Each structure stands twice: as structure tokens, then as C-alpha cells.
Amino acid sequence: MNPTGLARWASDPSRSRGRRLDEGSAAPRTEHQRDRDRIVHSTAFRRLVYKTQVFVNHEGDLFRTRLTHSLEVAQLGRSVARPLQLNEDLIEALALAHDLGHTPFGHAGQDALNACMDGRGGFEHNLQSLRVVDKLEQRYPEFDGLNLCFETREGILKHCSRRNAEALCRTEPDGPARRFLDGTQPSLEAQLVNLADEVAYNAHDVDDGVRSGLITVEQLDTIALYARFRDEALAAHPRLLAMPPRRLLFETLRRMLSTLVYDLIAETRRALARHEPADADALRQLPPLAAFSAEMREPLDELKRFLFKALYRHPQVMDVTARARTVVAELFAAYVAAPQEMPADYADASDLHRAVADYIAGMTDRFALREHQRLTGRDLFAA
User: Fold this and answer.
1) What's the DSSP call for residue 102?
2) Which residue stretches belong to region Disordered (predicted)?
3) Is 340:347 a contact under the CB 8 Å cutoff?
4) Domains, the chain
5) CA-to-CA distance for 322 and 314, rounded, in angstroms?
6) How high is the pLDDT of residue 58?
7) What secondary structure does DSSP assign to 57-77, as a single string?
8) How many Å apart are CA 150 and CA 148, to the nearest integer?
9) What percent of the chain clears pLDDT 70, i.e. is strictly above it?
């Protein structure tokens, strides 16, 4: 462990690869604290409160949004980071930024924009998240974007096709896309945020699915991971049977989340003990070290398959998804045909189609619906 209290393989902010434009020190804040602060104050972060997770924003006030999801990922990520002596500020920055590029209407919006941009570079929300922090946020006089550290940008770019990685590396040879060409890994902090993201959405999609009535606790009782923690909850608190069913659901999910966090910590420790990386750069040359145990991975995957079939492919969700795709596709066509309907900085862009994709991707659910109705005279989500 070094004098900062971080493990030797952690991302040490004093040894950051830096920003594309040097700005000097922000002491007493570390570089990754500074990144987190910039993300929290960004326009894209505020918009997450009205961007859907599974359920479109107008469907209810109690369902998760991209913002509440990001906060849950940050909480889980810090819970894992502290016992492993990792950089909690970087973990938090990555968790809060990882969905900045998501479109309105979740994956339905992304799929629609990707189809609209077919032959023009496509659309992928991880790449868009990097685009948001590198270019689209316009808050500072000296540069576009947020001018974040390499380690933060590296972790934001969770996935990237080879074609897109090659394009990014042409302008920034040693940038965050390089690892997709040379087969190396991101920081351990980035690896852990990816798994915290998975834990968070599996747990809260169970909660939101039951709340919506689209899945039932009887269905969940057939899923091994859920049934295990339901039985533990009832054994510890038999009176739950006489309480409203949501109490049992909450206690079951609480126990599941805790066990997944402890399992992730323990399995990652075992991997670190096997490989003993000398520092954060040495760790990047190794296979992924953040992982769940095999005993936990299998039932977790079963839960994911259940949610995919029972919730994400539920006829009601699919109906909303289809309408959301239509909204995005028709918005795209309308703006391409009449760029003046967008703000001037988008309408006057040299690449109109990419500017339209950027504009739509930045919209909240409710703004996209209002714009669609304004431009087409139709309300596809009318009751």
C-alpha cells in the first residue's frame, strides 16, 4: 500500500496520465475528485433524472431513472472499492458518468438512432458517453467537453467496436480506445464499475418489475438466486409472512445485494493474490481480475435470463419500446428535413446527421415526446 492509502494496483490520482489539455493542480482536490465534480455539475448528468431505465418516464414516479440507477451503481462501487483499497473517487466518477450517452427511452432509443445512422458511423451509447464528456458539454471557455482525466475517459468507454476504436486512435493514438485494439484491460476501478452496474440493474429491475405488475413474486420464487435469499429472509424474520409482500421483497433484495458485493470483493481479492500486479499499468496487461465466483456467476446469469424473457420482452414493454423507436426515428427524419427546428449550434453543424443524433441522444423522455408531438402533431403515448 502506498502513502495515499491505496493499494499498489489502484489508480493513484497523483500518477494520472492526465488530461488532454493540462490545467494545473486543483489541490486540495485530487484529479479524480475534480472529474467527479465536473460530471455532477454537467447538463448531461442532470438530464438523467428524466431518462428511462426500463419504464418510460411518464409511466410512474417511483420507477428507476438513469439518475437513480447511476447513484445506486456509485454506492455499490464504493462499497467494493473501500475494502480493496481502490480509488473511490474514480469509482464514483465512472459510476455517475457511465450512462451520460444514453438516449431517451433506454435501449429502444439507442436501437432507433443506430438504425438512423446506418452507413454514417452508427450510434452506440458508450461511445456517445465519451463524446458527451469530450465534446458536447460546453461549460468552459478554454475547451469543449469536460477535459477529464485519461482514467475516467478510459472507464467511460466500456465497449467499442474495432472500427470505432480505429477511428478514435487515428486522432488519439494512446487514448482510451487503444485497449480495444491491443487486448489490454482498463483499470480495476473501471472493471468493478461494470460489475456494479450489472448488480444494480438486476436488483432494481426485479423491484420495478414487481412494482409494475409485469412480473410476480411467484415467478421469482422459481429463480434460484432470489429463492435463496427469500428463504434466508423468512428464516431470520418469520413475521414477514404477515407483513405486506413488499417488505419480503425488499429484505430479499437487500440480502442478495450484500452477498453479491461480498462475493465480488472476495473473488477479486483471490485474483489479485494470484497475479500480484506491481501497479495499475501492470494490471492492465493481465486478464480481467474483477469477477464474481463461479458459484455466484451461474445463478446471477439465470436471473438475467429471467428478466430478459419475463420483463424486457414482456408484451407491454415491447409495445412501449416499439412506440419509442417510432418517436426517435420520426424525430430524426424531421430534424434532417428541417434543421432549423433544432438549436443553432446543432442546425449549423458540418455533419448534420451526427448533429441530429447528438441532439436527440441528449433529450429526456418527456422532451422527446413533446418535440415529437410538436413536429408531427401526433401523440404516440396518449392514454
Assistant:
1) P
2) 1-37
3) yes
4) 29-216+222-316 (1.10.3210.10)
5) 12
6) 47
7) GGG-SSS-BHHHHHHHHHHHH
8) 7
9) 96
